[in-house]
Description:
The protein is of the alpha/beta class.
Amino acid sequence: AGQRLAGKTILITGASAGIGQACALEFALAQPHDLRLILAARRVDTIHEIAAAITKQVGDGVKILPLQLDVSKPDEVRTFVGKLPDEFKNIDILVNNAGGVRGVETAGNIAEDDINVMFDTNVTGLINVTQAVLPIFFARPDGGAGDIVNIGSIAGREPYAGGSIYCATKAAVRSFTDSLRRETIHTKIRVMEIDPGATETEFSVVRFRGDKAKADATYAGMEPLTAQDIAEVIVFNVTRRQNVVIADSLIFPTVQA
Length: 257
Ligand code: NDP
């Protein structure tokens, strides 16, 4: 299936950690001979380290462009496509992964800044990156072609106490993804949603504002997924035959309450 990735250019947002980082490696392993990866995040130094590690592992058949991009900054998102080197301009696959959670306060107590960061990143950021990339897809024959993979969450389907804003952002991602899929139904653009369950990354520690003990407690009685587990599903989904779209994937650890 890695053959279907040959010659492709893939943009992954939030590639400096967790699922995005794992996704970069998984794509590189699937097509080590002829692939271009644009790895975007705010921590571009970390991206450079990740890029070097991938090149060391798979060789230079995978060309990597580290890109400093804060998806919550509309000006940065509006201009990055125009600034891409020619070799990386023709994006085929967009993985909208950048996102996160801030705190577990109840709806009445959550700080305005936390609300804004979550919506600006998880929702508006994802929409803005999509809008920046769609013209590349629409410029292709037959009304357009390309893949968009949006990372939602189980939280978008099953809201939990203390998660009102985060859950609302992920419900918004789900709704946006579904509309976009319907809007592009007469093209060869494939729009896919991936909803992970409990996955052990920096995410859980950030949720509890750095309290590792509380983060670990959320995994009591279960073995969480790894970022690689999610990355494997993403690579599988985008390497199906062009006429197949796995529109919706919900991924749990086998034991998750
Ligand atoms: P991590 O915290 O490990 O990674 C988050 C990534 O997003 C980092 O690379 C971070 O990079 C990037 N990011 C955050 N804000 C921005 C921004 N404004 N602009 C660009 N990049 C940004 O979390 P995960 O890997 O777990 O999360 C990835 C996605 O998966 C998120 O959308 C999350 O909501 C979702 N998810 C995670 C689950 C879990 O249990 N872990 C479960 C369900 C969904 P940097 O800080 O360098 O910008």
